[in-house]
Each structure stands twice: as structure tokens, then as C-alpha cells.
């Protein structure tokens, strides 16, 4: 796999027999992590945020009252179309690999035009329809993985749709005054600075299957992704935080390569850690992984080591980025995970 156009090939690890991995996150960050972890094992469980209220997901959520399907669909497509998964199928049955790749594209395809269907991905409609028929989003997701013969599993972090609410400063004349912003899209795009986020309902019940997967895993990853809307919400579900405390898995926190416009504008890598710790002071992880180019050697890295220590973790610095971008390279991420669990 190429890390970028014109870049040298990145050596990817072999499958590790019996390895069970759980990845917590949402959106494009989780998509990349799942692509990386699929190099290591076919036993990958994605646990996905369910607070999206924008675009197709927001429309379906408002019309049907169901869990927003978008991030769940993306996780399913990631497991279907991961290069390692396709290569494994291609060695046995090339036609099967081609079908998987084609269906992954179909699930991601958005309707064009200007009518009621415009902008809806096919996968969102399929998952929402199954959810409505079965009355159980976990059953609907399991049915889709069976239908498409997908290795791994996709689960929501909660069984009901959630709302993100944030205290945001910088929107009033007095910088000390915060305003409450509600909704994932509003929080992600605010010109102010989110200080703290909450979930509505408060302390929601988690998905039992997700908590069980975390407890039974060998490795659990959190991040990267939109910090306030895809990462922090995972530690605001008490059942899930309890599972993270009780699991014997190696817990790895991947920090974003750069601040994200809106949610974390102006945030340093260290600030990302402080904000996460403020929301979950009892959270313990084994490794905090940052990109070497985003944290130069010197005082800044020393500050990061102390920030990682608040989670009981060791700071790990690695080359993680697709060259010229702020995106994690799946092959480099996979190699980094192997280096840690070895």
C-alpha cells in the first residue's frame, strides 16, 4: 500500500492469529483506524458514536427517530473495503473480492438530483430500513455484516440516538462568558471554542454488546477523530467507561495530527490530552501515540509525557502521517500497533 502519491511502499504487518481488537471512534478517523487494524486481524469490532445530526443522517434521524446511520455505514464500508480484507479474499476467490469492493462503493454512493433522496447514501437508507424492520440497530448491523459476509462487527456506543451539547466560549463580547451550543454539527462548526461537552440524555445506557467486546478484547483503540464529537463522547457513556476500566486489553489512544477547524482550532497536541482527561479523569490507557512531525523534540514533548502520565500511559512518538497531510496512514498505524503489542 502506498502512503501517498510518489511515496515509497510501506511494509504492513502480517495477520496476528487470535487477536481481538476493538476500535472506538466515528467518521473518517474511525474509517482509517479500521483500515489499519484490518491488516492485523479479521476480528475487528468498531464501536461508533451515534450523535450525528447533519446531512443524510440528520434527516433520517429527524424523520424516523432512529439512530443516525452515517458513521455506522462508514465503519461497515471500511471493514468491507480494507485492502487487507480484499487481498485475503482475492487470494481465494478474485470474484468475491471484486463483489465486496463494488458493494462497499454502493453503500457509500450518494443519490444525486434535487429530490427527496438527493444526498442520501444508499447504505444509510438500507441500514435505517433494516433498523425500522427489526426494531434493533444491533440486529440490523449484524444482518448487514451477514448479508455482505463482512469480517468483523460494527456496533453503536449506545442503543438510542444521542445529542451533543457543549459550553462554548468566544461567542460573546466577554470572553469569560460561555454559550451552550447543542447538536453535533453546531459544535463541530462553531467559531467559538468548546470547553466541555455533555451527552443528552445524560449518562446514557451503553450498548451491551459493545461493552462486552471491550472486556474481551486484546487491544482497544480510541481516536483519532473529531475530538469533541467522535472521541470524548465514548468516555461519557458510563457502561463503556466501566468496560474500559475493567478490560485487560492494551488500550491505545491515538491523538490527532493537527487541530481541527471549528472544534479544536488553536489546540496543541497537549491540549487535546488535557481536555480528554478533564472529561474522564478516571480513564487509564497504556499508550498515548502522537505523530513525530506534529510534536518536535524538546520541551513540548516533555510536557506531553507529563500529560500522558495523567492517564497512566507512556508517550509513544511515531511517523504516522500520509506525507503532506494531517491524516493517519493506515499502514503506518498498523505497524505502530504491532510495535506496541510486541
UniProtKB/TrEMBL annotation:
Entry's localization field? Cytoplasm
Tell me one GO biological process term. regulation of cell shape
Record's Gene Ontology CC terms?
Answer: cytoplasm
What are this entry's molecular-function GO terms?
Answer: LPPG:FO 2-phospho-L-lactate transferase activity
* Superkingdom of source: Bacteria
Record bears the keyword Cytoplasm = yes
Alphabetized, the UniProt keywords read:
Cytoplasm
Q: Which family does it belong to?
A: Belongs to the gluconeogenesis factor family.
Q: PANTHER family attached here?
A: GLUCONEOGENESIS FACTOR-RELATED (PTHR30135:SF3), UNCHARACTERIZED PROTEIN YVCK-RELATED (PTHR30135)
The role this protein plays is:
Required for morphogenesis under gluconeogenic growth conditions.
The molecule here is called: Putative gluconeogenesis factor
- Originating species: Gordonia sihwensis NBRC 108236
Amino acid at each position: 500500500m502506498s502512503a501517498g502519491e510518489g511515496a515509497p511502499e510501506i511494509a504492513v504487518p502480517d495477520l496476528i492469529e487470535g487477536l481481538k481488537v476493538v476500535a472506538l471512534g466515528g467518521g473518517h478517523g474511525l474509517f482509517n483506524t479500521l483500515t489499519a487494524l484490518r491488516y492485523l486481524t479479521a476480528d475487528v469490532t468498531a464501536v461508533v458514536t451515534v450523535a450525528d445530526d447533519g446531512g443524510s443522517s440528520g434527516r433520517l434521524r429527524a424523520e424516523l427517530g432512529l439512530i443516525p446511520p452515517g458513521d455506522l455505514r462508514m465503519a461497515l464500508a471500511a471493514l468491507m473495503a480494507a485492502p487487507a480484507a480484499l487481498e485475503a479474499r482475492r487470494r481465494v476467490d478474485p470474484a468475491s473480492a471484486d463483489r465486496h469492493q463494488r458493494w462497499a462503493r454502493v453503500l457509500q454512493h450518494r443519490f444525486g438530483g434535487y429530490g427527496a433522496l438527493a444526498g442520501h447514501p444508499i447504505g444509510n437508507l438500507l441500514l435505517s430500513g433494516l433498523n425500522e424492520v427489526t426494531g434493533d440497530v444491533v440486529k440490523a448491523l449484524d444482518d448487514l455484516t451477514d448479508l455482505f459476509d463482512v469480517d468483523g462487527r460494527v456496533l453503536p456506543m449506545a442503543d438510542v440516538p444521542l445529542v451533543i451539547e457543549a459550553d462554548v466560549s468566544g461567542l460573546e463580547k466577554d470572553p469569560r462568558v460561555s454559550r451552550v451550543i447543542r447538536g453535533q454539527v453546531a459544535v463541530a462548526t462553531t467559531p467559538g471554542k468548546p470547553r466541555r461537552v455533555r451527552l443528552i440524555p445524560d449518562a446514557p445506557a451503553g450498548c451491551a454488546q459493545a461493552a462486552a467486546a471491550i472486556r474481551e478484547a486484546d487491544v482497544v483503540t480510541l481516536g483519532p477523530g473529531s475530538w469533541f464529537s467522535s472521541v470524548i463522547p465514548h468516555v461519557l457513556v458510563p457502561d463503556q467507561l466501566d468496560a474500559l476500566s475493567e478490560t485487560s486489553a492494551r488500550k491505545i489512544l491515538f491523538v490527532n495530527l493537527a487541530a481541527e477547524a471549528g472544534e479544536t482550532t488553536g489546540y496543541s497536541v497537549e491540549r487535546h490530552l488535557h481536555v480528554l482527561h478533564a472529561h474522564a479523569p478516571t480513564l487509564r490507557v497504556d499508550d498515548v501515540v502522537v505523530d513525530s512531525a506534529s510534536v518536535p523534540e524538546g520541551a513540548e514533548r516533555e510536557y506531553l509525557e507529563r500529560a500522558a502520565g495523567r492517564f497512566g500511559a507512556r508517550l509513544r512518538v511515531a511517523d504516522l502521517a500520509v506525507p503532506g497531510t494531517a491524516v493517519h496512514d493506515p499502514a503506518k498505524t498498523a505497524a505502530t500497533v504491532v510495535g506496541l503489542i510486541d
